[in-house]
Amino acid sequence: MSLCDDTLLCNFPKCRAKLSGFAWVTACSHVFCDQHGSGEFSRSPAICPACSSALSGKLDIVRTELSPSEDYKAMVLAGLRPDIVMDISARALAFWSYQVHQERMYQEYSLSRAESQLKQMEKLLNQQNQSRELELGAMRGEIASLKKVMEEYKRKYSEVSERLMERNRQYQKLQGLYDSLRLRNMVVGVGERDALLQTGHHDFNTGVARQASPQRSPQFLSMGPDVDSRFFSCLEGDGAKTFFQFSSPAREKGRPFIKKH
């Protein structure tokens, strides 16, 4: 706000609105909008909301029109001596200068507070950036370690894949050998079974042939050279009798029938 500006601002801390129409002016050189002035100065005793000054005088608070009519301008200072007119004008200009100075001080205060907040935010931002950089560095290191682990797993996977392929090849070879041996055993088994069947059939026929041929009574020729010759002579002399119908001759005294080993 400069001296050439023709708009005042409400001095109520939470308002700061541009004034137009009617305004409340105090003896402590503060001005308020019609809304806040009517609300604040309706109580008694009246207190300035800007500087907390007591406004107990009759003319300490004045509700004035900011854009008076031409008739008011022509008659408000009419009949007054020039020194009074100059005094009134000087006080009015001093009030305006105070408002300008106050607005400048408020803007400087707002600027310093904004700069302080900006510095705090920049400091907080730098701290956050540093922490993010540290986290980013840690994450990069972790990513690098994970890449190494992944490469190691890839290498192990390739080795295991190669071993598995080698085992599969060996398994295929062994399976082929097993199948060939099984087929060979099956062929050999069938051949042996046929040979056994043929041999059994030949033995069966031979046995039947042997049973059909006449046989003599057992001669016990395989008893050995120690058997008494009289035993076999008796068998030959009595050819019509069987072995079970044969009655042994009387033994000689002092000589056994068959020598004992």
Describe the structure.
This protein is mostly helical and 261 residues long. It contains 4 helices and 5 strands. It has a 3-stranded antiparallel beta sheet with strand order 2-1-5. A two-stranded antiparallel ribbon has the order 3-4. The chain starts with 21 loop residues before the first strand and ends in a 24-residue tail after the last helix.
Anisotropy-based shape: rod-shaped
Question: What structural class is derived from the secondary structure elements?
Answer: mainly alpha
Radius of gyration, whole Å: 71 Å
How many β-strand runs? 5
Largest sheet: 3 strands, antiparallel
- Beta-sheet strand percentage? 5-15%
Major β-sheet strand ordering? 2-1-5
Give the low-confidence spans: 215-254, 256-261
Identify the notable features of this structure and list them briefly.
4 helices; 261 residues; disordered C terminus; mainly alpha; rod-shaped; 7% strand; two-stranded antiparallel sheet
